[in-house]
Amino acid sequence: MNRNKNKNQKFHIIGAGIAGLACAKFIRQKNKSAEIIVYEATPRPGGRCYSYYDKKLQRPLDNGTHVSLGVNKSINRLIDKKKFVYRINFFDTLSAKISRSFKKYKSHLLVSIFNTPGHEVAHSLIKTVFWKLFPFTMFQKKIYYSHNDLSRRLIEPLLGNASRIRYGWKLLKTEDNNGRVTALVFNRGKIDIGPREAVICALDARNYGKVFGGPEFDYADIINIHYRTSVELALPQKKKILGIIKGMAHWIFINKDIVSVTISAAENLQIDKDELAREVWKEICNIRGVEPAFVPPYRVLRHRRTTVKMDWSNNNNRPESAATKFSNLFAAGDWTYKNYPCCMEGAVLSAKRAARLCTK
User: Fold this and answer.
1) Are 222 and 286 contained in the same domain?
2) Whole-angstrom Cα distance, residue 330 to residue 309?
3) Average pLDDT for residues 220-224, to the nearest whole number?
4) Residue 1 — pLDDT band, cuts 50, 70, 90?
C-alpha cells in the first residue's frame, strides 16, 4: 500500500523572501522528490533581506542591517558562517557614557525589536520576547549582524531547495471551487492547481490582503543610512555596534569602511533624506568626540511598511495558524506568526509551521 497516495507531491510557493525560501527547504526535508515551484514578483530573491552592489558608494550593501540574537535558533541554523559579537553596548548621548544595562534601556530594545514605540507594543508580545525568547544572560552574550553579505550567507544557500524559481511572476488573483484553490492567476499566465498540489502564500501582509482579503493593518517604517568613509571609523571603546540613546539614530554598525545606521518606527519622521543624513552624521561625530567634518558619501534607504505595527489591535488581527479558509492554501511570513515579533526568526518559524501542515 502506498502511504503517500493522498499526500501533496507538488507545491507552489508565492514569494521568494525568507519565509518562502525556508518553506521550500522544510518541504524538501520532508519530501525529497517533491516538485517545488517558487514565484517571485521582483527580479531577485530575498524579499526585505538582500544584498546588492551600490554604484554610488561602490560597495556591496545589505538593504538594511539585519540582526539575529544567539537564541534565535531557527534563523541562525540557516545563516552560513555566522560572525557573532558579544555584548551589546548603549551610548547615552546626554551623559556621553557607555552602558550594558538592558533593564535601564528596555524601551530602546522594544522599539528595535518590534519596530514600534515601546509603550504601544502589545503586552503579549513583550511577555513572549523577554520571558521566553531573549533571556538577558543569553542576549548579552551573542548577537549576529549582517556584514553586507546577507544574500550570500542566507538567501543563496536556500535557493537550491526549489525545483524552479520564476522571477517576475506577480500573483493577481486565485480561482477556487469547493473550498480549494484551483488556479493561480499571475501577470504572466494562469497555473492550474491539481488535487495533489498545495499552495503556500508567503507574501507580506499588504500584498496578501490584496489577493485574499482580510483585516487592514497599520505598518511601521525603517530607515537605514549607509556612509562610506575613507578609513574604518572608531566608535567609543572600539565598539563595532552601539545602541544610541536619546539620539536620532537607534543603532550604529561598523562594517569596515561602511557605517550603517538604523532608525526604527520611522513612519512619522518627516525630514528630507539629505538633511537626515547630515544630522545623523553630526551625531556620529559627536559620539566619537570629534568635530563634525564633511559628510562622506551616503545612501539613505527608507523602507516603507517594513513590518506590521506590533500594538494590541494589529497583533490581535494576525492569523492564529498557517491554515486558511481553503484546504490546500497555507500562509507563511513573519506577520502570520501571532504573538511573535515581525523578524527573520518569525519568518522561519512561520515557514516551519506552514511546511508541517501542507506535508501531512
Assistant:
1) yes
2) 23
3) 97
4) very low
162 and 238 in a common domain = no
If one counts every other C-beta atom within 10 angstroms of the C-beta of residue 321, the result is: 14
Please give the angle made by the CA atoms of 25, 70 and 347, to the nearest 5 degrees. 35
Q: Are residues 29 and 100 in the same domain?
A: no
Higher-confidence position of 49 and 102: 49
Q: Are residues 131 and 231 in the same domain?
A: yes
In a domain, residue 2? The reply is: no
Q: Which of 247, 260, 257 is nearest to 286 (CA)?
A: 247
Residues 212 and 222 in one domain: no
167 neighbors 43 (Cβ within 8 angstroms): yes
Rg of the Cα atoms in the chain = 21
CB of 62 closer than 8 Å to CB of 150: yes
Residues 297 and 230 sit within 8 Å (Cβ to Cβ): no
Residue 334 burial (CB count, 10 A): 28
* 203 touches 211 (CB < 8 A): yes
Q: Give pLDDT tens digits for 235-251.
A: 999 999 999 999 999 99
Cell of 337: 506568526
CA gap 217, 313 in Å, rounded: 9
Considering the domain architecture, whether residues 235 and 135 belong to the same structural domain is answered as: yes
Residue 246 belongs to domain with CATH number: 3.90.660
Q: At residue 113, what are phi and psi to the nearest 5 degrees?
A: -75, -40
Q: Which domain holds residue 156?
A: 10-49+152-217+316-358
- Residues ≥6 apart with Cβ < 8 Å to 320: 338
Query: 224 with 64: CB under 8 angstroms?
Result: yes
Q: 29 and 114 share a domain?
A: no
Q: Is 115 domain-assigned?
A: yes
Q: Is 65 exposed, middle or buried, given 0-12, 13-18 or 19+ CB atoms closer than 10 A? A: buried
* Domain membership flag for residue 3: no
